[in-house]
Write a structure and sequence with these properties.
Blueprint: E1 3-10, H1 14-21, H2 24-30, E2 37-41, E3 52-59, E4 62-74, E5 78-85, E6 90-100, E7 103-113, H3 117-148
Antiparallel strand pairs: 1-7, 2-3, 3-4, 4-5, 5-6, 6-7
Helix pairs in contact: 1-3, 2-3
Organism: Heyndrickxia vini
InterPro entries: START-like_dom_sf
Protein name: SRPBCC family protein
């Protein structure tokens, strides 16, 4: 299973970063390139443990839906969401937040299993892993910009 890890320093308090990362409306803003929007389950506000949300987005030119659930929440240091339904075989996305003297380190860890067996493994090596890494980095950079301009 591929694992993507990305760390970014944000010049903002840990509580601000944590709440922005689990905010549905902010998630929509930070994924505007894929036109991601919450269409079912929790569709606004802050995600909490046990919450389920269905996202709709455009990836690879196709409209896709993905349902995820927050399975762990340790405010303001960590939350974890998993895929319940969607294009991936499975995924676990862990969001860590570490308080620093002048801000916060936000650490994303995204571990997934590609769909479609052998075809999915080939697609993963050819483009999927890089695509997902770029998606996570882009979202982190957008969240950083929002947090630092609050």
């Amino acid at each position: 299973m591929p694992k993507i890890e990305h760390d970014i320093f944000i010049n903002a308090p840990i509580e601000v970063c944590f709440d922005l990362a689990r905010n549905i409306e902010i998630h929509t803003k930070t994924t505007s390139k894929t036109r991601e929007k919450a269409i079912a389950g929790v569709t606004k506000g802050l995600l909490e443990k046990g919450d389920i949300v269905t996202w709709e987005a455009i990836h690879f030119g196709m409209k896709q839906r993905l349902t995820a659930q927050v399975i762990e929440m340790q405010k303001p240091n960590r939350f974890v969401d998993i895929m319940l339904e969607g294009i991936f075989h499975s995924f676990v996305h862990t969001h860590h937040f570490i308080r620093e003297k002048n801000g916060t380190i936000m650490k994303d860890q995204f571990q997934y299993k590609a769909p479609l067996g052998v075809i999915g493994l080939i697609a993963d090596k050819l483009f999927l892993e890089k695509y997902m890494e770029n998606f996570i980095i882009s979202r982190a950079n957008a969240l950083k910009k929002i947090a630092e301009n609050k």
